[in-house]
Amino acid sequence: MIVILSSLIGAALGWLRATKLDGNRADHVQYAFGFGLAFSIIGLILTVIVSRYI
């Protein structure tokens, strides 16, 4: 659940970042994918840490 939520948040932040930089549609998708992937890896690490200690 943490992974899905963090990837969606990352994709939204990436989309907003590309919008702020005046990117076109391809830039928006690329930033959303990149940020979503990075945030999902962070979410995966958090999931492992939480499940390990709780």
- Please trace the helix and strand order, writing H or E for each element: HH
- Tally the structural domains: 1
Radius of gyration: 13 Å
Oligomer class: single chain
Largest sheet: none
Report the helical percentage. over 70%
SS-based structural class?
mainly alpha
- Overall shape: it is rod-shaped
Number of helices: 2
The N- to C-terminal Cα distance equals 16 Å
Beta content: under 5%
How many individual β-strands?
0
Low-confidence stretches: none
Overall pLDDT? 97
Report on this structure.
This protein is mainly alpha-helical. It has one domain. The chain contains 2 helices and no strands. The model has no long low-confidence stretch (mean pLDDT 97).
Defining traits:
single chain, 54 residues, mainly alpha, transmembrane helix
Give a concise summary.
The protein has helices at residues 2-20, 25-53.
Strand and helix layout:
Elements: H1 2-20, H2 25-53
Helix pairs in contact: 1-2
